[in-house]
Design brief:
Helices cover 24% and strands 36% of the residues. By secondary structure, it is of the alpha+beta class. The protein has one domain: Lipocalin. An eight-stranded antiparallel β-barrel has the order 1-3-4-5-6-7-8-9. Strand 7 and strand 8 form a beta hairpin. The termini are far apart.
Length: 143
């Protein structure tokens, strides 16, 4: 009887830890993938209209990164170190963005340019978290 109870408890613990586990993120997890922003600080983004575009990240070889911040394209070099992420030497165009995209773009650019914790959940949602901002991206490859 006790053996059965212990076995059920162990299996339950394993299932729960597997479902809620966050995977350690490696360069291989990111490279050759496109990630589309789902939310900023838990709030969904508005529909993209006019010059606004949903921010996205596209990782290439040697952690080169490009994408869109909201209105303006960007590129740079992504750094992944000890569970932290940031984009070094980020360059972007500086087109003026209409509301609310200007604020969205500034928030995303600031977060990407500062060291953030990085995690990847079992559903392949990528989370970047700084002291002030949490960005959640969904894996959405072109093919």
């Amino acid at each position: 009887m006790w053996t059965r109870t212990i076995l059920i408890a162990l299996i339950g613990s394993f299932v729960v830890s597997t479902v809620f586990a966050q995977l350690t993120v490696t360069a291989t997890d990111l490279q050759h993938h496109r990630w589309v922003l789902l939310s900023i600080n838990g709030e969904a983004l508005p529909a993209a209209e006019g010059t606004g575009k949903i921010p996205e990240l596209a990782f290439g070889e040697q952690m080169q990164i490009g994408g869109n911040l909201g209105c303006n394209p960007f590129n740079g070099k992504a750094v992944l170190r000890d569970g932290y992420f940031l984009i070094e030497a980020m360059v972007s165009t500086h087109m003026i963005c209409p509301p609310p995209w200007g604020d969205i773009e500034l928030t995303v650019q600031t977060a990407l340019g500062h060291e953030s914790t990085i995690s990847l959940d079992t559903e392949k949602n990528l989370t970047l978290q700084t002291a002030d901002t949490t960005l959640v991206f969904r894996l959405e490859d072109y093919v």
